[in-house]
Amino acid sequence: MKIVFDENEFFRQATLRICGSLNFETAIRRCFEYIKNYLPIDGICLGIYEPDLNMIRINTWIGPKNLKKPDNIIKVPETYWKQIKAELASQKGIRIINDLTEEEPFALEMIRRIWSEDGSVIRVDLQIEDEKVGGLSLYATKEVHFTEEHARLIMLLHDPFAIALSNLLRHEEVIRLKDLLSDENQFLHRQLHKITGDTIIGSEFGLKPVMDMVRQIAPLDNPVLLLGETGVGKEVIANAIHYSSPRKNGPFVKVNCGAIPENLIDSELFGHEKGAFTGAVTQRRGLFERADGGTIFLDEIGELPMAVQVRLLRVLQYKEIERLGGDKVISVDTRIFSATHRNLEQMVKDGLFREDLFFRLNVFPIMIPPLRQRKGDIPALAYHFIERKSGDLKIHNRPSLSTGVVSKLQDYHWPGNVRELENMMERALIRSQIREPRDILSPNDFFFQTSIETAQGRPAYTGQFLSLDDVITDHLRFTLEKTKGRIEGSGGAAEILNIHPSTLRGKLRKLNIPHGKKK
Questions:
Q1: Helices 24-35 & 158-194 angle (0-180, nearest 10)
Q2: Residues in CB range of 369: below 8 A, 6 or more apart
Q3: DSSP state of 57
Q4: DSSP bridge partners of 226
Q5: Percent over 70 (pLDDT), the chain
Q6: Which neighbouring-strand residues pair with 300?
Q7: CB 151 within 8 A of CB 136
Q8: Of the candidate ranges 88-92, 182-186, 359-363, 374-378, the one whose mean pLDDT is the lowest
Q9: What is the mean pLDDT of the chain?
Q10: Residue 516's pLDDT is what?
Q11: DSSP state letter for 10
């Protein structure tokens, strides 16, 4: 028998209730109380399908007082999912179950775990386009038999139920990602604090003048320029300044200016609008926008192309950017740290770096001394790396250093600075464990360059201070000599130096080093 009433009003009122509360269970309860006036139902259940986990997650269950609420998680046999897929493929998507004794055992078990076997059930698969999001089931006591007319009325509400459940899943995903991001941020804060503040080795000795300057500049909002050789720890000092500043709870974005291809650096730093270039299918925020309210650290700033230097100057002067392909001015509240191992003053004279940008960045320069100028910090740094690397290498009995090793460490010139010391300590720890683990690291566990020519024939430290470009040039020439000019492939210079062949060729051109395979 067909139920006579205004179906449009039924649909409208039921939909208003489904969408009428941000609390999903409250919304479903209100809808249930309304549709009870038109359908002989005693319970309603919405479950979320999790086929990858072979389970149904019960989100909302409303039923008679004599029935026990089911578990939130119901394990489902794989054959049940096959049946659901078959029904969806046939475009049926709804089943009337009045005689539970005719159901297959696994289907009967599912119904028993949600409802009672003494009753009737209408089950609807909720689907958005081709995505199966969950299931709706309506329950009635055994005195009631559902009809095709009842099923037709329920199918009128398929889309509102499906959309509401899909929105719930999206909301849960947003909450999950937000919590994940919060956890990641807390983890990163903890990791960064391990290498900043009180844990900076030498803060009261060789790095004391530097740390005094850090304490002076941290509370302010001025740009900071960090100078020093490669490997001295410029990033560590940048961390210390940021996490001692009022911006410490804001983002801290690090950018290696030398690692971004020249044709992408504008987009990376300043963002782009949709359609700004081929492949720009969406709008993208740049790193300056991501650092809004915090700090951006521009490492290797001497590698910035001149065109980007002009745009960076505007950020420093007016705190404004424009995305690539856009004409809207965007204000950014971002503090700028920069760092380089290059001689910016010489680059200005050579026309490779803008003079006005240099003066804007050079408001408060901090020169970080090389390790060879603060040898008193070397023993403490060495033990710090032993402690940290032993944990990474799962060495339970942390070795100590023999007196001879400490003397050799302090006598060495450390062209690679703290980074070289860290690598040397890790290498020594590995060597000490290869045969029979030892409690003391001896000089045999280390390799020091002690003569003009090393065992490999490479020039060593001679007491003369060279520019970094000269050191790099010597090393590249030596490597090309050993590979007979070969750059790519197995045994080529790029593989030995662990850099991309195109990057190596760019450096060779920049330093005017002839290259090409020798015949």
A1: 170
A2: 206, 207, 210, 228, 232
A3: E
A4: 339, 366
A5: 87
A6: none
A7: no
A8: 88-92
A9: 83
A10: 64
A11: H
Per domain, the residue ranges of the chain are: 7-171, 195-367, 372-445, 450-519
Residue 491 in contact with residue 483, Cβ under 8 Å?
yes
Distance of alpha carbon 409 from alpha carbon 412, whole angstroms: 5
pLDDT class of 199 with cuts at 50, 70, 90: low
Q: Give the integer Cα–Cα distance in Å for 190 and 201.
A: 17
Residue 128 host element (H or E):
strand 119-128
CA distances from 41 to 63, 71, 349 (A): 9, 21, 86
* Pairwise pLDDT comparison (114 vs 241), residue with the higher score: 241
Dihedral angle sign, alpha carbons of residues 358, 363, 368, 369: positive
Full-model pTM: 0.55
What lies within 8 Å, CB to CB, of 254 at 6+ separation is: 235, 238, 296, 297, 299
Q: Backbone phi, then psi, for 350, in 5-degree steps?
A: -85, 0
Pairing of strands 335-340, 252-256: unpaired
Domain 372-445 belongs in CATH node 1.10.8.60 = yes
In 202-294, which ranges are continuous DSSP H helix?
A: 208-217, 234-242, 265-270, 287-290
Note the CATH architecture for domain 450-519. Answer: Orthogonal Bundle (1.10)
pLDDT at 463: 40
Q: What is the 3-state secondary structure (H, E, C) of 12-40?
A: HHHHHHHCCCCCHHHHHHHHHHHHCCCCC
Q: Cα-flanking dihedrals φ and ψ of residue 373, to 5°? A: -95, 0
Q: Is 461 exposed, middle or buried (0-12, 13-18, 19+ CB in 10 A)?
A: middle
**Radius of gyration of the CA atoms of the chain, in A:** 34
- The domain 195-367 is placed in CATH, from the list 1.10.287.3510, 3.40.50.2020, 1.20.1440.230, 3.40.50.300, at 3.40.50.300
CATH of domain 7-171: 3.30.450.40
CA distance 91 to 174: 31
d(CA 516, CA 266): 32
